[in-house]
Batch of 3 targets.
Target 1
Amino acid sequence: GAVVSQHPSWVICKSGTSVKIECRSLDFQATTMFWYRQFPKQSLMLMATSNEGSKATYEQGVEKDKFLINHASLTLSTLTVTSAHPEDSSFYICSARDLEDQPQHFGDGTRLSIL
Amino acid sequence: GENVEQHPSTLSVQEGDSAVIKCTYSDSASNYFPWYKQELGKRPQLIIDIRSNVGEKKDQRIAVTLNKTAKHFSLHITETQPEDSAVYFCAAMYTGGFKTIFGAGTRLFVKA
């Protein structure tokens, strides 16, 4: 149980392109979803937290107009990297949880490479 | 702000030996402590967790201990195997809030 599906797994695109990443909870209702960015050999850096039907809460230093998050349903959240540039290249991972006292379950991550 | 410190950053052990990873948290309200294992290029996977009303929890070769007074918790892996090689993250959260604070990770190498 507690499966989180993330797509795409790998994206290579030109600078200036907008990229959408989807995160779906397959067998539970994801009341809260989290988006992380992970640099090589580093820990998970929380970008934003989203609750279904509400606006996402962004961490300090994360541009909300750059990283658009939509959590329209209890099973789907999307992260759109707008007008992506090479410095946005990274590994993006979503996670989801149902109840507040339950652990987060992670998606497989999306490797984003901007040329 | 809230912080979780994790040590060591790198740990190398011989197959069959034990490995211990230690974490310290700053927010005394934290009451849930999961541990995740992340293999290269893959998702972090929950391997064990402990809540603040318990001092120790064991699942086969892995165990976690919690000292609430000292705000320390540790992961213990016994009889290590090469497939235990991965990055391990500790985390602390308050179940009444939203945020989980992760440690910086420990890269474990198990030499055959």
Target 2
Amino acid sequence: EAQVTQNPRYLITVTGKKLTVTCSQNMNHEYMSWYRQDPGLGLRQIYYSMNVEVTDKGDVPEGYKVSRKEKRNFPLILESPSPNQTSLYFCASSAETGGLSYEQYFGPGTRLTVT
Amino acid sequence: DAKTTQPTSMDCAEGRAANLPCNHSTISGNEYVYWYRQIHSQGPQYIIHGLKNNETNEMASLIITEDRKSSTLILPHATLRDTAVYYCIVRRSSNTGKLIFGQGTTLQVKP
């Protein structure tokens, strides 16, 4: 089954404790992206990757890091989480390339709480 | 990417067709109309997309006006599980791949 998986699904942590949210897709998609969703602000793009070893900032990259060492994985790293990073996070992937537009597939979400 | 306007909320009776409108009067010729939905904090789900012709798949139909300034998503036989927030997004292929989600339409399907 074609899917995007995220782990963990729920996480409660404390300020400053480094964490990683994993994202994996089994569709051989080149494009992957991270969004966060907050009440009243909708979904906002954090980082995206057009291919292996190619990543770039989205609209709200501060406090986050990503890596793309393999096509299927795109982990989101919070080096020093803060309470304002409490949010619902979604990973997405797509066959999209620079010249063509395709639908995006989203993971189930990771609900992160930073105390 | 062009801005879209959708009603904040709509109701639909179970088993009836749900028609969700979207205005995108500033759409450009190379921009597609995409529809996604989000069921209660789950990941957004792709529904359908089109450029200028009407489209139909197993989930829905998309009707785009001839001038492309508006479109309608049709769920032919709405069920309770179709209760969700529906997002109309107008975009072209870009280097960022970013989807701009507006406020969407909250569709409530009632028994």
Target 3
Amino acid sequence: GENVEQHPSTLSVQEGDSAVIKCTYSDSASNYFPWYKQELGKGPQLIIDIRSNVGEKKDQRIAVTLNKTAKHFSLHITETQPEDSAVYFCAAGGGADGLTFGKGTHLIIQP
Amino acid sequence: DAMVIQNPRYQVTQFGKPVTLSCSQTLNHNVMYWYQQKSSQAPKLLFHYYDKDFNNEADTPDNFQSRRPNTSFCFLDIRSPGLGDAAMYLCATSRVTSNQPQHFGDGTRLSIL
């Protein structure tokens, strides 16, 4: 089955700086890579996703890059704001088994 | 407006006393999932329904069961909760299982006394 590794587990950045979270996956058949943001006491919310026929996708301050050859994908958040503080999960999927999640990154934005 | 609704948000039950968690959706999605999430961990898939077809994960304990009486509703039954079952339980939906976003509810936090 699929295995997703996510790093770092905790990331602290100054407000206004950029944050990068990286994930690797093992199953070359995976072709869908979403990123979720989870705030305390809430369910994960989809913030951006990318499919394997695309190398990069951007939505305002958030971007995701995908390297299929190396089997890794990354989340980039620019101009970080206090409301970006949360736990972020990457995931990989594409088959009938649905998504496999990474272990999460706790992003802390320092004022 | 919430599209995946879980009730209750907090549930307390006694050790060994059966408990049922509920989930409803307004998205008319084919697939409904139940995840268990423990503190500081990723969501762990327990099972999912594709329409009426039930798909159990290999390592989901027999203590956990699910029912989906119609497209909109899905229930998680824990027959004899143990202390290790205290967790957040998340329901999610998607149009199909592959290549599609999953939409999560805000979860039910289950405590075992």
